[in-house]
Structures are given as structure tokens and as C-alpha cells.
Amino acid sequence: MKVIPHSRPSLGKEEEGEVLAVLKSGQIGQGRIVKKAEKSFANFIGVKGALLVNSGTAACHLALLSLGIKEKDEVILPSYVCPALLNAIGYTGAKPILCEVKRTDFNLDPAAVKKKINRRTKAIIVPHLFGAPADFKELAKFKIPLIEDISQNIGGNYRGKKIGSLGKVSICSFYATKLITCGEGGIAFSDDEILLKKMNDLRDYDEKENYLLRYNYKLTEMQASILLVQLKKLSSFIARRKNLASEYNEAFSRYNIRLPSGKGHVFYRYVLRIPENRDLKKIILLFQKKGIICRRPVYKPLHRYLRQKGFPVTEAIWHSALSLPLYPSLRKEESKRIISAGKSIFSQLI
User: Modified residue N6-(pyridoxal phosphate)lysine is at which positions (predicted)?
Assistant: First the structure.
């Protein structure tokens, strides 16, 4: 029995051809193709500029620095997210302020955010978790710079605007499991030319007139060439994800589980919730025995790493959220296996 992985990148001959062309050119460090990709991504999002870097964490770090975030400042972010954002805040010396998320879409809860704001709050990091757009309209009312994390919703829309064009600065990861990928990599977007200039200066340390603490955050030409191909495929990737999600929703609608839904969802992850009194680890193991790798979509909430209490919604979600395999390269026979296994396992929850 062949195992169906939780994630699988969607790469093909076109990406392979572009990488070979770069290798033959002899120019593999940051250069012309990186600049071309930056322009293509900026045009796609609809902002003035973009900067490619070597990871999403690097993009977040540069975004925070461009906003002047420093020691004793506070940055709000959800607890229900991976540690990359927490690390980026740590690099600046600022204090992370963890916040609750909404039960419906797992995104930052504006009501909870409001309670955490004070005079030291200098930024709010807003991920669009699992592909569902966050409530930017409400979060923007706080008049605090928003760093939009579009790693899980690039290509999506919110109230008629492109995801990525909403924040003061936006960031995205191109890690191997993301909507589009080059293995590693990231990007920062902004309409603010001053912020773009600051990030561009800090991205590379060499050939500068003065000395500042700068970074080696550059991306290679090979990675940029892959991203240019992946960007062209993004709309078809999202269409495939939505079709698979519809198949899953139809198949699992009769069972005692809460299915994902929502306008603007691009289904980076298909995350459902089982009853909170059921054993999530056992269900993951049951899928594994059928050759299907399912996971908690967030390995561990940030408040658990920081040993903080008082996050009941996040805790409830963490104990009940299950992510099924869903990606463009998932074959028809694989999705049928997942649906068949899901029906068998979820029928035990009725």
C-alpha cells in the first residue's frame, strides 16, 4: 500500500527546464531573474514593489525592521500559528503578544486583539490561516500597522481586493509545502516606497557606503526561475484545491464533524474539527493505518511553547483540528482513498 503524504509539491518539466537554463547561464546568484520575479509578483498582487528573500521568516524580519520595531515594542500575533513569526519578532528584541483566534476560521479575533492593544503596540501580524481570509476590515480599525502574512492565501481575495495588498507590509513563504514553492524562499510586498527601500538595504550586507547590521537574505536565480513558473500555475492550483475541498465537503457532510467553509477560501489546508471529546491522536493513527498521513495543522500553539495560560479557544481548536491531504498533485485514486477512509473513520463519530 502506497502512503499518501500530507503534503506534496506540484512541480513539473517546465520548472526543471527553467532551472537548467539558469545553470547553463552561469549566473546563479541574485540577479536579473530575481528582479523579473519581483516585478511579476508585485504586479500580480497590485502593489508598488516586492523583495524576494530566502525564507518567509526573513521576509517577516525585514518587514518588522522596516516599521522600526525594536526592543520594548510589542507585536500582536495569533497563538495558533507556527513559530516562524514568533522567531522573527524575537530577532528584533520586541515582545510578542499572543492573541486568541476565532472558532469559525481560525484567524485572529479582532475582539481579542482589542484587549491586547496598548501604547507599546507597534504592529499586528495577520496570517490568513489555512487559506481563509482574515477579518481585515475590523483589524484595520485599530490604526496600527498590519503585517499581512499571505503564505497560506496567496492568490485569494478579500472584499474585492487581492490578498497581499491589504497590509502596510505583506509577507509570504515559498516553503516546500506552500501554495507555490521553490523549496525555500519568501517575499515581502508593500505600496510604501520608503519601507521597500529599507528592506532592500537590509537584505544584503555587501558594497554599502556605511556599516549597519544587515543580513544575507538573498534568493538565488534558480529559485526565482521556479517561482515564475509556479506563479503562472497558481490559478489552476487554487481551482484544483477548491474542487477537492468540494468533494470532501460533499462526502463528509453527514458526519459529526465541523467542515471548513467561508468566502474567499483557497484551501491551502483542508482542516475539519472532530468533537472535542474524541481522541485526535487516535483518529490520526487510524488514517495512518490506511496509508494516509493526516496531521494537526499547527503542531503546537505558541502559548504552549511560551508556557502561557488563558487561551481556551485556541486550546479547543488544537485538540480537535485535523488536516487531510489536499494539494494539486493529489491523484484521483488518492482522493478516493482519502474519502473512503474518512467515511469509515468519521462514521464512528456519529
Answer: 178
